[in-house]
Amino acid sequence: MHITDILVTGEPIIYGAMVSMALGGLAILFVLTYFKKWGWLWREWLTSVDHKKIGVMYILSALLMLFRGGVDAMMMRVQLAFPDLGFLNSQHYNEIFTTHGTIMIIFMAMPFLIGLMNIIVPLQIGARDFAFPYLNALSFWSFFFGMALFNISFVIGGSPDAGWTSYTPLSGAAMSPGPGQNFYLMGLQLSGIGTLATGINLMVTILKMRAPGMKLFHMPIFTWSTLVTCFIIVFAFPILTVALALLTIDRIFGSQFFTLTGEGLPMMWANLFWMWGHPEVYIVILPAFGIFSEVISTFAKKRLFGYNVMVWSMIVIALLSFLVWVHHFFTMGAGAFVNSVFSVSTMLIAVPTGVKIFNWLATLYKSKIEFTVPMLWSLAFIPSFILGGVTGVMLGMAAADYQFHNSYFLIAHFHYVLIAGTVFACFAGLVFWYPKMFGHKMNERLGRWAFWLFFFGFHVCFFPQYFLGLDGMPRRLFITNVAEWLPLNVISTVGAAGMALGFVVFVYNVYYSFRYSERETTGDSWNGNGRTLEWATTTPVPYYNFATVPYVDEIDPYVRMKEEGKTTFEEDKVKPIHMPSYTGQPFIFMALLGLASFGLIFEWMYLAVFGLIGGVVMMIRRSFDYDDGYYVSVEEIKETEKKARGL
Amino acid sequence: MNHVIGFILSLVMTLVAAWAAIQSDLPVTWVIIGIMILALLQAGVQLFMFMHVTEASSGNGHVPWNMMFHGFALAGIVVAGSLFVMSFGHDHGDHGDMGDMQQQEEQHSEDHNGH
Ligand code: HEM
Ligand SMILES: [Cu+2]
């Protein structure tokens, strides 16, 4: 076989991407070699089981994916604003909207949030790491290699092109031959292992490793949202795993689960996909709710209003999220009775969501708000998300959905909830906890610029799309030169450019702050307004997190600790701390499974079998691994703490 | 030891299930029944041999009733929900618009007969 058989050829844009990827890769190799950083990379990062470092790697990958997905988005917007330019052909357009959707949900939103959870949740509950640190590293590398696989598809083998929903029969072997669709299946399958493992890992961490005295109803609200999210992950992801596996077997081994022939049930794919897919959208919004709650109560300088109600509404949302999936295919024709049942359950979800909105407003009511950058993102979230939620309820009316379905009205709806909800939360959370992660804050002025550009860009981009939808413009269409639609499409593209600019300023701010921001001296970075335990640690956080774990018996424990002058370093109580050792196994294990997946994608069975055997060997290796970690000595702890606290 | 036996048992049961589906000459109903039974046994092996549901030393404290209940509830939703969604409404029988279509079809065939 020749290399040109699997490389994608004939597209100038893709050649350009190949060249820039190759140059970028070479540049990284050069820098690492020139500054002799290979050992450092392996020892400090690739083999790390420290939840904070893994979290940082998650967030960096997510930002990279936000860039990749964003480039896809800009290309689509250019095509739609200038449909006569012939910028993209239909095949390329199909590939781009498919990778855009998949990347943004699976490889951007989830890892971003999981990254923040990684760093913050153990700190909020007074734990020293995850319950299973090895598994946590495994999760990250499974996500990483899944992401890498999915992303190389556009230069090797060709991208998937059947939408992020990958509906059968279109995505079956008969109508989508070739490796493209296999990239989707294996990329998601591989990274799904990690998501499921993280769900279990965080659940156990939160249930078993809280500070002494901390009851469930004392936990910070972000930790609560994480716990609820983990329940959804653990129950929803197996459905996706099974659906992906069945479709993989269909495509590679010729079974007939979702085919048109041989008594296959193509609609069963849609059914299974959305049984996972709807809970999935709540997986990415509940942690966002948690972040906003933390930010709002910190900068309103008040305890969160209606803490118990907030928790219960999340639990109710989680339960309901498993009972509404049919609203994604009302038009499949399941009949009036089925549609009515799911119409009602869908509209019910708006109730607990509304309750949460009122609680945030009540927290803000009569408070002295401090308009920091994370607070700006959070305040902007409230009205913007309401626009998304209200249109969601409109879509939830089955009869009306026959008009809205698969039009730009739907597109506008889910971008209003996903961007104003999840993406705003990612930015808010990152800026908010940035000093904890990197020891300095992000520059406020640049942060404001990024915020306003992104915020206005977002509304200019997506608000017109509601009207495009009402004017009948369908989604996933690449020639849209209908005179009626053109002006709104151009406006929308201008908005998208605004968002892109906002993102650029944000990334520049990372660099700028690294160079010029003042280094943090205390752990309580936001003018001493921190309320929960993560602010009680010093900055930078020592690798064992807490020298001594405080006793907690209330919500927002750090407020009282500060009043009473307590810290997480009580010198006479320091004991040796048990920590897990770093290991390269998770990296190697997942690299092997990545190789196996690559083999399956191209149906090179020898490679697949080789990779899978490698995986089994790594499991056996792990079973006979008796490394129990090590102890940090009392002297070392005392020395570290005294230095960090200037004692 | 328990783990090794459990591991081998679960492998064997998986292979038997695969054999039943791919290679055997059994009638389809029997294959389905057989696979279901194997699935139940498989779940049993997992619970008793790997997940310590009956470990006396911890006072049976390991039984995760809560999670198991939710697991069953979810399985119920997936199965019953899929049946509900996938089998309703596709044939409206003798009322609704499908009924009209059937009538049309009947007329159609009558026309044919007329020729
Ligand atoms: C008030 C709560 C919500 C309601 C009532 C609601 C309702 C709906 C309905 C009925 C649809 C299907 C419309 C159609 O296909 O014609 C839909 C699509 C969608 N919703 Fe929502 N939604 C809500 C909140 C959310 C949230 C919080 C998210 C994510 C953060 C979200 C993400 C999505 C996505 C991604 C789709 C489109 C999937 C696709 O077809 O590609 N929704 N929503
Ligand atoms: Cu939904």
What can you tell me about this protein's structure?
The complex is a heterodimer of chains A (647) and B (115). Chain A is 68% helix and 1% strand. The model of chain A has no long low-confidence stretch (mean pLDDT 93). Chain A is mostly helical and 647 residues long. A two-stranded antiparallel sheet of chain A has the order 1-2. Chain A has two domains: 1-36; 37-329 and 337-583 and 627-645, Up-down Bundle (Cytochrome C Oxidase, Chain A). The longest helix of chain A is centred in the N-terminal third of the chain and has 36 residues, at 90-125. With 115 residues, chain B is an all-alpha fold. Chain B folds into two domains: 1-63; 64-115, no CATH class. Chain B is 75% helix and 0% strand. In chain B, helix 1 (2-22) runs antiparallel to helix 2 (28-50). Chain B is flat. The model of chain B is unreliable at 91-115 (pLDDT under 50). The chains are: A mainly alpha (647), B mainly alpha (115). The structure holds protoporphyrin IX containing FE and copper (II) ion. Protoporphyrin IX containing FE is lined by residues 165, 281, 284-285, 327-328, 346, 349-350, 353, 389, 392-393, 395-396, 401, 404-405, 410, 413-414, 417-418, 421-422 of chain A.
